[in-house]
Amino acid sequence: MTYNRNKWSWRAEALALAVGTLVLAMLPAVFGDTYTRHMLIIIFIYALAAASWDVSLGYAGIFNFGHMALFGIGLYGYAILTKQLDLNPWLAFVLAGGLSGLAAVLMSLPILRLKGIYIVLVTFGFSQLVMTLIVSQSDITGGTLGIVRIPTLPIAGHNLIRDGKIGHYYMALTLLVLGLVALRVFVRSKAGLSVVALRDNEEYATSRGISLARQRLLTLLVSSLVAGYAGAFYGAYLRTAATDVFGLSLTTLILSIVLLGGIGTIYGSVVAAALLVVASEMLANLGPWRPMLIAVLIVVVMLAYPGGLMGLLRAAMPTRRQPTAKSGRAASSEPVET
């Protein structure tokens, strides 16, 4: 059997995800304080936002700098639908993700056939346009003051305010797992493989009949739906919506999570989000030194392991001895692991 440490079989990946989910599900029993649980919830939300960005940036190679605007549309969509239109929170949550998907379709139209810096400019301009629109429509969005006291996602018969954040923790964990599964299913599908083919060799892929415009649109749609639901849950959990989500601070943080975790890995975003959030909290007393030390940490990891934390983990995995010509012939009848 040939061995490729960069690829897992479906069965191995599902087993690893199940074990990881079980470990995360048991953490509230270990960490009884609400502050640690709050940090874990934020880690899950940031990880999902970063993983969804990784699909368009890492797998498709689209320099989409409007991704956090899609996150913000999910946040404001949920806030407006529940606060201004008084919709049921769960219905508003579903619609908010759809709004992000619709926004991604509109954003993608001008960039379907653009390349490089032009995509950066258009998507960054889209992000600024969304923020300007939200600030200007203060009667609906609250302008620079934002929206407060947003209704949370209710659980029948459960008090989310006095449960020590248990309810929100398991909702965030469920959203994270579902989002990761959706993203992995996409990137491992034929559509996902064609997206990677376009990234690696656009001319060859298009000559084989793969549509650049269609696959870019599909990638941004999948990525935006997950980002939109992460943003909607962010609003339901914190119960506030502010234009800070469109700022460079959060955009830089989420992009750092993508890069530190490893481009084109998805799961690396979860590891990197945990590392950055925990490191940020541990260095909170250092004031202005905190962002500088975190930046140094990211640079050191990226210099040592350009593949990010997932590259580091793969390098630490034991490598099987390459089969000899004789053993290779003997193994040729065995199935190939993908």
Automatic annotation (TrEMBL):
Transmembrane segments: 12-31, 37-55, 62-81, 87-109, 116-135, 169-187, 217-238, 250-279, 291-313
Pfam families documented for this protein: BPD_transp_2
Membrane topology: Multi-pass membrane protein
Subcellular location: Cell membrane
Keyword Transmembrane helix set for record: yes
GO terms, molecular function: branched-chain amino acid transmembrane transporter activity
Annotated Gene Ontology cellular component terms: plasma membrane
UniProt keywords, alphabetically: Cell membrane, Membrane, Transmembrane, Transmembrane helix
Family matches, as InterPro entries: ABC_transp_permease, LivM-like
Domain of life of the native organism: Bacteria
CDD domains reported for this sequence: TM_PBP1_LivM_like
Name of the protein described by the UniProt record: Branched-chain amino acid ABC transporter permease
